[in-house]
Design a protein that fits this description.
Layout lengths: L4 E2 L10 H7 L1 H4 L11 H21 L6 E4 L2 H15 L6 E5 L4 H12 L3 E5 L9 H7 L4 E7 L11 H10 L3 E5 L18 E5 L10 E5 L28 H17 L3 H15 L5 E3 L10 E6 L4 H6 L4 E2 L5 E3 L2 E3 L2 H5 L4 H5 L1 E5 L6 H20 L2 H7 L5
Parallel strand pairs: 1-11, 3-4, 3-5, 5-6, 6-7
Antiparallel strand pairs: 2-8, 7-8, 9-10, 10-14, 12-13
Helix pairs in contact: 1-8, 3-8, 4-5, 9-13
The structure holds pyridoxal-5'-phosphate.
Pyridoxal-5'-phosphate binds next to helix 4.
């Protein structure tokens, strides 16, 4: 693991020392239950939680009372989709989403469909963009919510959040934004971008795993979400369970660190672009959503006529990822790339490189060298590549 070059930061990130150091005291010195307000240790743990809540609300420019802690984005998505569906049935049962959403959204919505929810799955273009007029037309008086990610985890495509929020506002439809990949990579000002509900997850921006936050906008007509986890009265009864103090402290400090010290997004984008340009010197290699607004750290690259798994196996020094899921020993192509109209073969030939603020130029140089060699080697032995070279396939 010592020499592994880690370019799988959209899957998860390393906890940075500055964040880890703030968490340690809450494992070993102050281990109190943050709801035990009758002793000083409990009160101190409670203050640490409230400090973290301020750090999150400061980073997003919203109010502290609009932030709720939970175990991460999957829990937020389940809470919001199930909770809103349950509470808004008098308005309607219609929810809109896109075909390129994360499985946490698609699976939860498939299950709600079985209970009678009506779901519209918006189509996307070749880069993964939704059509804003199609969105506008699909919202009816019975539509209760749009659920759309801020940025795609596989391609990095960023949706036009301001325009989407405006459409939803004009049409009186809640906008729930899964910003799991966006927060910690690009800034967001919730006083300007009128998203109603938003989720984020600390492990995507150098914080701990298993902790996230849900933003629910305070409006004149309150947004009603039925809690997913009931029990004690934590988070004003919205999310029960003993507070995970070290993780909450880690989340607060990770988001504050990102806000104050993060390397300029442009610098990471520069490294990413350098990687893409160098790898595209190889024949039959292209970048998905290249011309679209994207996260600065993500490169989704198709190496045609080989498979991503062959390529990744040939480069054990690199930590990379493909969007495909392994189902019963065979690979399924990424649903995101298929929805974008990419062929099954090209989807299976796609590798995701996701950089972070910790990625260095040396690591990128080494990655280019290793990938170039591996692609050439795998293609030399590939009958598909020979067929392509002979002009027998396109
Ligand atoms: N949504 C998106 C876009 C993601 O990329 C992920 C994680 O990969 C999730 C949701 C789930 O996040 P968590 O690990 O916090 O449950």
């Amino acid at each position: 693991m010592k020499d592994l070059i880690y370019l799988d930061n959209n899957a998860t990130t390393k906890i940075i020392d500055q964040v880890w150091d703030t968490m340690v005291p809450y494992f070993i010195h102050n281990y109190a239950n943050a709801s035990s307000l009758y002793h000083s240790m409990g009160r101190e743990a409670n203050s640490a939680i409230e400090k973290a809540r301020s750090q999150v609300s400061k980073a997003l420019n919203c109010q502290t009372k609009e932030i709720f802690f939970n175990s991460g984005a999957t829990e937020s998505i389940n809470t919001v989709l199930k909770g809103v569906y349950k509470n808004y049935q008098s308005k309607g049962k219609h929810i809109i989403t896109a075909k390129t959403e994360h499985k946490a959204v698609l699976t939860t919505l498939e299950n709600l469909e079985k209970e009678g929810a009506l779901i519209t799955y918006l189509e996307v273009d070749r880069a993964g963009n939704i059509d804003l007029s199609a969105l506008e037309q699909s919202i009816t008086p019975k539509t209760i919510m749009l659920c759309l990610m801020a940025a795609n985890n596989e391609t990095g495509l960023v949706h036009p959040l301001d325009d989407i929020a405006q459409i939803c506002k004009n049409k009186d439809c809640l906008f729930f934004c899964d910003a799991t990949q966006y927060i910690g990579k690009l800034p967001l000002d919730l006083s300007k971008t009128e998203i109603d509900i938003l989720c984020l997850s600390a492990h995507k921006f150098h914080g701990p795993k298993g902790i996230g936050a849900l933003f629910i906008r305070r409006k004149t007509k309150p947004i009603q979400i039925h809690p997913l986890i009931e029990g004690g009265g934590q988070e004003h009864g919205f999310r029960a369970g003993t507070y995970n103090v070290p993780n909450i402290v880690g989340l607060g400090n990770a988001i504050a660190y990102f806000q104050e010290n993060n390397r300029d997004a442009k610098e990471i984008a520069h490294l990413r672009d350098y990687l893409e340009t160098a790898l595209c010197e190889l024949p039959e290699v292209y970048v998905h959503a290249k011309q679209a607004p994207r996260l600065p750290n993500t490169a989704s690259i198709c190496f045609r006529h080989i498979t991503a798994s062959e390529l990744m196996t040939s480069c054990p020094q690199l930590a990379l990822s493909s969007g495909s899921a392994c189902v019963s020993g065979t690979r399924d192509p990424s649903h995101v790339l298929l929805a974008m109209g990419i062929s099954k073969e090209d989807a299976l030939a796609t590798v995701r490189f996701s950089l972070s603020t910790l990625t260095t130029q040396e690591e990128v140089n080494k990655t280019i060298e290793l990938i170039k060699k591996a692609v050439q080697k795998v293609r030399e032995h590939s009958p598909i590549w020979q067929l392509f070279q002979a002009g027998l396939i396109t």
